[in-house]
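User: Quick one: structure for sequence A, then sequence B.

Assistant: Sequence A:
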Amino acid sequence: MRKTKRYPVKGANSLWQVYRTVPFWKVFKNTFIIVIARYTPFMPVKNWLYRTFLKMKIGEQTAFAFMVVPDILFPEKISVGKNSIIGYNTTILAHEYLIDEYRVGEVKIGDEVMVGANTTILPGITIGDRAVVSAGTLVHKDVPEGCFAGGNPMQIIYTKEEMEERRKSEKETR
């Protein structure tokens, strides 16, 4: 189960009421920073923009590939550990706006995590240290540390123990 907090709304759908939830100028600033960072080829500059202006928690030597989109409304709810890779065109959401409610949840991505291209990470998700998420995955539940997950719907393909065994056998065949 994803860890999100629910906020019911009355009247028009929750997205229609977005500026009752988040100030317009915060959304404007976040949009501006995200657009700049999406096209910035320099990892340290990109991480500085995210840390400084979006208040994201990002570990050292973490790389956000070209066109990654962090949450535009609640980027401060995203944390990524050290030496991780977030693949091309990945979207990391910390919110979801529905008809009768909106939900907000922290996204925690561990150390040395590899997230493949074109992945969507939903709010309230934790991805454990040294996990691998294949390209094109919809991450709708937690990913345990060290495992390999992928697909839509996402499934655990190899557990941590199976991944360690695979790495060990690959080293032996070299």
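Sequence B:
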Amino acid sequence: MKNAITAVLTAFTILLSLNTISANEIKSLLISEDIISSSQLQPVFDNYFAIKDALIKSDSKLTSAKTKDLLTAIEAVKMDKLNSTEHVAWMKVVKKLTADAKSISGTTDLKKQRETFKSLSKSTYDLIKISKPEQPVYKQYCPMADADWLSKEKAVQNPYYGSSMLSCGNVVETIK
């Protein structure tokens, strides 16, 4: 009887150990999947922010160059590495995101770049909203341009008017 109880307890301990190992392995795999997924989209977001910063400086040539970098980042996204939610969102915005980026990169007309940036911001917002950004992202709004943009900084720096109205706008949403 004593041996039977010992055998049952040993078997139970082994099963618990296996479950713990399995749970830890699964958690590790899920974390790895999130890291792969976010690393797929992070260059897209980083290049968007670089475009915003170039527009704040009212530098149309830099804006065009940074938008070419965004196109490269868009092309580098491997859809099979995105999680299912991001994949669906990516499929909805990728054509518009690409078209807007091509439009901005193809001109040095600052007014046209800023106008197209409105649409680029909308597509980027739709994508970043469902992903897990590495740090908080602030959706900001300018009533004069009647347009939104995204920023990693809470302080408003308006890409639609640059230095002429740098602080015009406010934070309307924090994405975490």
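Residues 2-56 form the longest helix (55 residues). DSSP finds four helices and three strands in the chain.

User: Thanks, that's what I needed.
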